[in-house]
Specification:
Layout: H1 12-23, E1 31-36, H2 60-69, E2 71-76, E3 83-84, E4 103-106, H3 132-135, H4 148-153, H5 155-160, E5 173-176, H6 184-193, E6 228-231, E7 235-239, E8 249-253, H7 265-283, E9 287-295, E10 303-309, H8 315-328, E11 334-336, H9 342-345, E12 352-356, E13 362-366, H10 375-381, H11 401-415
Parallel strand pairs: 1-2, 2-4
Antiparallel strand pairs: 1-5, 3-4, 6-7, 7-8, 8-10, 9-10, 9-12, 11-13, 12-13
Helix pairs in contact: 1-2
Length: 424
């Protein structure tokens, strides 16, 4: 027989009573602040190391609680040590809808002799009044969610934490404002491969430190895992769904970025590496590389990369086609001066359309009101360029899942010699 729980302890029934009404609410997004005395077990995984004995520190029940409640701030103080963990994600990249990050902060004992931090001052806007896109923005130092691997390894035990009949530990949980990677590479490769289907070529580099990738979105990019061609530390490459041509691809940041002008320097650098690799890849097949971006009525940056056969037209022909069709739509498409960064003319939040030609000439239009969503495809599909006008709308170019898998497999194999993610 179990002894009755002490007044300062909690049981699984207590946790269930706290959690279930919240997670069963379809509008629940997480909590703003969670206070517990115990640390969540394993919170340091993929993050910076704390100055505590990690073999004995923390509670699995609290870890399970934190995973389910997704607090924006989680405070604990039982260990008497100061520890501010790098923020961690609350979703799996490319697999789940994006969530806000969690910041775990442990505080030392008040007036401790070592003068370790025991106070934490901060401002917080309740998530219920925040713009969703602002809420889910990911900081540059974000890491993978530390508890998921633990919960996967101990799935049944974790489930039992919220079932009647088991006893918890000595901890107190306080909820305020209830609203709404085995390493990084391993976790993401497994997600893309569908847990071992063999569809994803495993990198030989073994690179990618925890937290090297940022994420995620207001909603993650709607790219199905079987369309992924290559994945780096900050970006990945995917075959375009309903592409203009078989080698039409997308470069996407792993983290949530609305547009190119919002990118951090690390993401820009890796995106440039993908551009360079694609240019070499297309050149080997007698094609030129055309890129365009539409930062308008989109939730996540997608840089469209379309190869155009060299023998169909010149770069000047492509530039003229964009200019002429823009004029017909009563849009002023301007050429960006050489060595001018897009950030200099398009502050964050500015809706725009942007084209980068293989000559490195760049065309830009600041969207005022209405903008044809398929404009980039319409120009490239026109008779003057690819001469496939019926493919201007991607919805008219859909393939079956089997056809997509076959095309992507072929494209992945073709691109592999140019894929820097395969380098040793």
């Amino acid at each position: 027989m179990f002894e009755p729980a002490l007044p300062h302890c909690f049981t699984s029934e207590d946790l269930t009573a706290l959690v279930v009404p919240l997670i069963n609410n379809s509008k629940f997004r997480g909590v703003d602040i969670l206070l517990t005395s115990q640390w969540p077990r394993g919170v340091w995984q993929y993050g910076n190391n704390p100055e505590v004995n990690t073999k004995t520190c923390g509670s699995s029940a609290v870890a399970n609680l934190a995973e389910k409640l997704k607090p924006r701030y989680h405070f604990a103080a039982l260990e008497g040590a100061h520890y501010e963990r790098a923020p961690y994600r609350n979703h799996t990249v490319l697999q789940e809808k994006a969530h806000h990050v969690t910041r775990f902060i442990a505080l030392a004992t008040v007036n401790n002799p070592a003068k370790k931090k025991y106070l934490y001052a901060f401002n917080i806007v309740p998530m219920k009044v925040m713009d969703p896109s602002e809420l889910v923005k990911q900081p540059q130092d974000v890491t993978g969610e530390p508890f998921r691997p633990l919960c996967q390894r101990r799935h049944q035990q974790a489930e039992d934490e919220f079932q009647p009949g088991s006893r918890g530990g000595a901890a107190t949980a306080v909820l305020l404002r209830p609203e709404q990677e085995a390493g990084w590479r391993t976790g993401q490769e497994e997600a893309i491969r569908g847990r071992g289907t063999g569809a994803w070529p495993v990198s030989r580099r073994g690179r990618g430190s925890p937290g090297a990738a940022q994420t995620a979105p207001q909603a993650p990019p709607q790219v199905e895992k079987h369309l992924v061609i290559s994945i780096g530390t900050h970006c990945y490459l995917a075959m375009a769904k309903g592409g203009l041509t078989p080698r039409h691809v997308l470069i996407l940041p792993i983290g949530h970025y609305q547009s190119v002008v919002d990118l951090s320097s690390e993401v820009v650098q890796e995106m440039e590496k993908y551009k360079s690799a694609l240019k070499s890849f297309y050149k080997s097949r007698g094609e030129r590389c055309i890129l365009f971006e539409r930062n308008y009525k989109s939730q996540h940056l997608q840089l469209q990369v379309v190869p155009v056969p060299l023998d169909l037209c010149t770069t000047e022909d492509i530039k003229e086609a964009f200019m002429v069709q823009a004029q017909e739509q009563q849009m002023e498409l301007m050429e960006i001066p050489q060595h001018t960064d897009l950030k200099q003319i398009a502050p964050p939040g500015t809706p725009y359309f942007f084209v980068e030609l293989d000559s490195e000439e760049k065309l830009y239009y600041r969207i005022q009101r209405h903008f044809p969503l398929q404009f980039g495809r319409e120009v490239l599909a026109s008779e003057a360029i690819l001469n496939i006008p019926t493919r201007a709308d991607w919805k008219e170019c859909k393939q079956s899942r089997e056809e997509e898998e076959e095309c992507c497999k072929e494209l992945r194999n073709e691109f592999q010699p140019y894929d820097f993610a395969w380098d040793d």
